[in-house]
Amino acid sequence: MILVTRLDRQVMLLNPDHIISIEETPDTVITLYNGHHILVRERSRVLLNRIVAFRTRVLRQASAAWQRPKYCSRSRLSLYTPPHGAAHQPESRDGLLPLHHQDV
């Protein structure tokens, strides 16, 4: 969400995903998907910087979610061990058993 100020100095949060266009006539007009128009005090360059900062925060939080702690990851070696009595398969370079005989 980005912070915008209406002409009557009322502060509101706006979802930048709903913005279709930003026009600078004497006043800055934001057009939304639902057809509403919002007149704001900020210039288009300021709004653009706020939108970029918002998207940067979202992407950083999303990339942090991909970096799981070690205790959340499974041991791959235990997933690919052959059953008892099966023929011995050679291990690959990284120490894991291959999934298919062609992967050797």
From TrEMBL:
Record keyword Kinase present: no
InterPro entries named in the record: SwrD-like
Spans annotated as Disordered: 81-104
Composition-biased stretches (Basic and acidic residues): 90-104
Keywords from the UniProt entry: Cell projection, Cilium, Flagellum
Name of this protein: Flagellar protein FlbD
Organism lineage string: Bacteria, Pseudomonadati, Thermodesulfobacteriota, Desulfuromonadia, Geobacterales
